[in-house]
Amino acid sequence: MNPRQIVARIGFYTFIAVLTGFFVLPMLWLASAPFDSNPGYAPRVPEKPTLQHFSALFENDLTMGSLWNSVVMSFSCMVLVVASAALAAYALSRVRIPGRDALLYLLLLLSSVVTGTAAMVPIFLMVWKLGLLDRQLGVVLVLSGGLLPAAIFILKDFMDAVPKSYEESARVFGAGPLRILREIVVPVARPGLATIAVWTVVNVWGTYLVPFLLLRDQEKQPAAVVVRTFYDEGGGALLGPISAFSLLYSIPVVLMYLFVNRRYGFRFHGGIKS
């Protein structure tokens, strides 16, 4: 190995070490700071581990209620997006419509270009006109509508992979379209549905802007919005409550991913992770 190769190898491993530290250090801080009586910005082993930050959170109805609000909104959006996207993707997969593929790409393009931030003013006015302002139902409808185009685009690939011979055999024995969808298509496309479910929950779980603007009552706001309240009167961050709340906030998503991965598995299918 010549000197140039040695320098290149050292540079490569240095880059990998810096990149690994960039992702690992926040995780170490999240694992240690909630149990430290006086946490700082750097991760360290607590000298005297304590649960005082968790005790303060459990006594606060607003923070624990916000976690429940996040669960309710994420679950509602997941059910609405998975059900609507499955029906739409199945219909687009089986019915021949002129310009069908162009329509799908147009929906995906518009959902990517016209983001929730850019369309926030008309969305706010529409929700206000419908009387859904300061109601979680309004937030669920807005978030689900924003996720549906991409969900339909992804699910159509899974619906196309379902063999049509299965459906033709079912029709011979008198099965209708809804029964074929429920008992044949959905079980075969289950990994795709699980992927959309996890993707929807993760997106809704971390959303801040839409619930912040549409929900004025703090008792109705999700955890992603309530976390902004962990500051003192001088504007300084309360690291103890923030770290403990962040740890509780991340647990449901991690458990959901582990459950879905164990039950359905994640693998690459048709160029899309399933």
TrEMBL record:
Q: What does UniProt give as the signal peptide span?
A: none
Which InterPro entries does the record match to this protein? BP-dep_ABC_trans_perm, MetI-like
| Domain ABC transmembrane type-1: start-end pairs | 67-260
Keyword Transcription attached: no
As for membrane topology, the entry says: Multi-pass membrane protein
Q: Which UniProt keywords apply?
A: Cell membrane, Membrane, Transmembrane, Transmembrane helix, Transport
Where in the cell does this protein reside?
Cell membrane
What is the organism field in this record?
Answer: Nocardia iowensis
Q: Which domain of life is it from?
A: Bacteria
| UniProt record similarity statement | Belongs to the binding-protein-dependent transport system permease family.
Annotated membrane-spanning segments are 12-31, 67-90, 102-125, 137-155, 192-215, 235-260
What protein does this entry describe? Carbohydrate ABC transporter permease
